[in-house]
Amino acid sequence: MSNAKANAYRRLTWPLFFELIRLPAKLCSFLPYLFGILYAWWGFHQFNWVNSLIYFIGQMSIALFVTGFNNVQDFYKAKDEHYRQTQNIIGREHLSPRRILALMGLFLAIAVGAGVLLVWRTDLSLLLIGGLAIFVAIFYTFGPVPLSRIPSGELLSGTVEGFGAVFIAVFVNVVPQPITLTLTGSRFALSGNLPVVLALFLLALPIVILDGTVMFADNICDLAQDQRNQRFTLPYYLGKARALRIYPWLPAAAFLAIVLAVGLRLLPWPVLLVVFMWPQVRRNIDRFLAVQDKAKTFNTAVNNLLMTFGSEAILLLACILADLAVPGLF
């Protein structure tokens, strides 16, 4: 009986659940959603609260799914037994992988359900956009060759969580939609507003870059561990020295994209105040370049994302409120 108790899986408590889904990092998933909602109001003067609420549920559900599902897949695919039993939360806390998978499946079902409802309420083209995002979310760590184990994680992470989330947040709020898909008998027609799509990409580019930078920092910190687990990420192919030389240029490119968006009048000029965050961002970059440690300095990449894009969202909200109080101010 004592052996049975010793071998029993632990119950998933709230603190363990929050660690499993990396709750603090979920703010990184919320910011693109928030920015997209704000820009739908600023750029198009439209806001659909029902669609926004449905998308919020779907976006947060898929964010929870991805993190929890990745933890389970890393547990199953680990070649390094020390990592499996002492660092991966599933093995370290002796949680049931099957129960965690079932819970993550529930979150995935909620996200898919929200997506289908939004397709019905907006346009059929969202089925293609959302379907691609779901595909990346599942096969990021699943399958014989997961996307996270090849040098594509940074690009996919930034594009899907950055541009994808901003684009969909705008998509579900504005009419007409930036992209439309129509079916007539056996024929279909996909059309879009190219200037709007390109503008949204530029607006989302800072979060695309900074989100990818977070993944880049994570992979740099885990380089030795990833090699033991046969996970060959971008830093593996670049080499650590070259990866560290590239690293500082990524946040700089994000700030340049913000300046360019303001210069093209896609954003109001007060958003330029974001540049005052650069000294702190630079200090975080220097801290990471000095020591690449998951526990000590990885959070500097996350902080840079939150400070930069969070400030941009707050400034845009302030401009919206000021413009409501004094129309035409910006």
TrEMBL record:
<keyword id="KW-1133">Transmembrane helix</keyword>
<feature type="transmembrane region" description="Helical">
    <location>
        <begin position="155"/>
        <end position="176"/>
    </location>
</feature>
<dbReference type="InterPro" id="IPR044878">
    <property type="entry name" value="UbiA_sf"/>
</dbReference>
<comment type="pathway">
    <text>Quinol/quinone metabolism; menaquinone biosynthesis.</text>
</comment>
<keyword id="KW-0812">Transmembrane</keyword>
<dbReference type="InterPro" id="IPR026046">
    <property type="entry name" value="UBIAD1"/>
</dbReference>
<feature type="transmembrane region" description="Helical">
    <location>
        <begin position="53"/>
        <end position="72"/>
    </location>
</feature>
<feature type="transmembrane region" description="Helical">
    <location>
        <begin position="246"/>
        <end position="267"/>
    </location>
</feature>
<feature type="transmembrane region" description="Helical">
    <location>
        <begin position="100"/>
        <end position="120"/>
    </location>
</feature>
<keyword id="KW-0474">Menaquinone biosynthesis</keyword>
<dbReference type="Pfam" id="PF01040">
    <property type="entry name" value="UbiA"/>
</dbReference>
<feature type="transmembrane region" description="Helical">
    <location>
        <begin position="188"/>
        <end position="210"/>
    </location>
</feature>
<protein>
    <submittedName>
        <fullName>UbiA family prenyltransferase</fullName>
    </submittedName>
</protein>
<feature type="transmembrane region" description="Helical">
    <location>
        <begin position="305"/>
        <end position="326"/>
    </location>
</feature>
<feature type="transmembrane region" description="Helical">
    <location>
        <begin position="126"/>
        <end position="143"/>
    </location>
</feature>
<keyword id="KW-0808">Transferase</keyword>
<dbReference type="InterPro" id="IPR000537">
    <property type="entry name" value="UbiA_prenyltransferase"/>
</dbReference>
<feature type="transmembrane region" description="Helical">
    <location>
        <begin position="20"/>
        <end position="41"/>
    </location>
</feature>
<keyword id="KW-0472">Membrane</keyword>
